[in-house]
Design brief:
Layout: H1 3-23, H2 30-37, H3 41-47, H4 51-70, H5 74-82, H6 87-116, H7 120-149, H8 153-175, H9 183-207
């Protein structure tokens, strides 16, 4: 594929990702994608047989990008680098990394989560290519936390769930409720959550 064709296909994909994330797959038409991309409808069908083919391409792209950021590449490297940090610094490193991930991949994440509810093929693809890798990584972090904090694996999982919930909440506030939270404020919220986790850990150690 020459540079012009590659650039056109990238415009189509970018426009489709934006509109599907905003309106959902069913409400997005090829005409609206073409308008957003600044091309004619007919050009889209030079690259994709129909709208479903375009969605499959987007999903494949989304899975690829999500896996690059979630599985044994970027985040595992981050975990490996920070595994000897104090617990608070370790958790903050992971939380800030995941916040950046959500910011950089929000539209793709939203498409996968939205369409997975109604598309069995996509659910199977997610289970085979995404969830297994994610669970593997979560297990690694759980064991690191349990060792660092001297707590059971179950408590380590609860702590990680609180951290993940914070990132999801910050993302939802910004993208669904239009609550403007800049990077500095987001990190302050992360620090407050880590303060609570530390206080709880200190309390539990005192009780023991």
């Amino acid at each position: 594929m020459n540079n012009k064709k590659a650039a056109t296909q990238e415009r189509i994909l970018s426009a489709a990702i934006k509109l599907i994330a905003l309106n959902g797959f069913k409400a997005t038409t090829t005409a609206s994608i073409a308008k957003e991309a600044g091309i004619s409808d007919t050009i889209i069908f030079k690259y994709y047989r129909d709208k479903s083919s375009l969605l499959r391409e987007i999903v494949q792209q989304a899975m690829g990008q999500l896996l690059d950021n979630i599985n044994i590449t970027a985040l595992v490297t981050k975990v490996e680098i920070s595994k000897d940090y104090p617990t608070r610094d370790f958790l903050k490193t992971i939380m800030v990394d995941r916040l950046e991930f959500m910011e950089n991949n929000f539209e793709l994440v939203k498409i996968v989560l939205m369409e997975m509810q109604y598309n069995d093929e996509l659910m199977i693809l997610a289970e085979n290519k995404l969830f297994g890798k994610l669970y593997e990584l979560i297990d690694i972090i759980d064991h690191l936390l349990a060792d660092k904090m001297g707590v059971s694996l179950e408590k380590a999982r609860t702590i990680l769930s609180i951290c993940v919930g914070t990132i999801v909440t910050l993302t939802v506030q910004k993208h669904f409720f239009s609550i403007q939270i800049d990077r500095a404020e987001a990190e302050k919220e992360i620090d407050r959550v880590l303060d609570v986790i530390q206080l709880s850990a200190n309390y539990c150690m005192g009780k023991n």
